[in-house]
């Protein structure tokens, strides 16, 4: 059953990875707004409003997904150590 649905699971993994990238952006921006509320405008004055970043999110998602795909993050997980997966993530993050 897993071999039959292997491509489906890989696509779902990629979609969930990229959805987490987008979600982490919005969570980070919410935390920035919350810290600005707590500590005043000086704490977050060098950060642009969310509208500035919204046009850049698709670029970041495409680059991140492409880098993970290029470094074979979505090939089979059998026989892969956690350290190898972390190395792939670090390479993709560096790119």
Summarize the topology.
Elements: H1 6-39, H2 50-54, H3 57-70, H4 82-94
Helix pairs in contact: 1-3, 3-4
Structural description of this entry:
The protein starts with 5 loop residues before the first helix and ends with a helix. The chain has helices at 6-39, 50-54, 57-70, 82-94. It has 95 residues and is mainly α. Helix 1 (6-39) packs across helix 3 (57-70) and helix 3 packs across helix 4. The model has no long low-confidence stretch (mean pLDDT 82).
Quickly describe the structure.
This protein has helices at 6-39, 50-54, 57-70, 82-94. The protein has 95 residues and is an all-alpha fold.
Task: Give the percentage of residues in beta strands.
Answer: under 5%
Q: Specify the number of helices.
A: 4
- List low-confidence stretches: none
| Main sheet properties | none
Please bin the fraction of helical residues.
Answer: 55-70%
The average pLDDT value, as a whole number, equals: 82
Instruction: Please give the radius of gyration in angstroms.
Output: 17 Å
The shape, in one word, is elongated
Number of strands: 0
Structural class: mainly alpha
Instruction: Compute the separation of the termini in Å.
Output: 35 Å
Order of helices and strands: HHHH
Q: What attributes does this structure have?
A:
mainly alpha; 95 residues
């Amino acid at each position: 059953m897993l071999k039959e649905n292997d491509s489906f699971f890989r696509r779902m993994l990629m979609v969930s990875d990229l959805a987490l990238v987008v979600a982490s952006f919005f969570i980070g921006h919410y935390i920035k707004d919350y810290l600005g509320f707590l500590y005043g405008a000086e704490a977050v004055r060098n950060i642009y409003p969310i509208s500035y970043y919204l046009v850049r999110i698709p670029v970041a998602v495409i680059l991140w997904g492409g880098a993970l795909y290029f470094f074979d993050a979505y090939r089979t997980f059998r026989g892969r150590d956690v350290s190898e997966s972390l190395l792939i993530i670090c390479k993709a993050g560096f790119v």
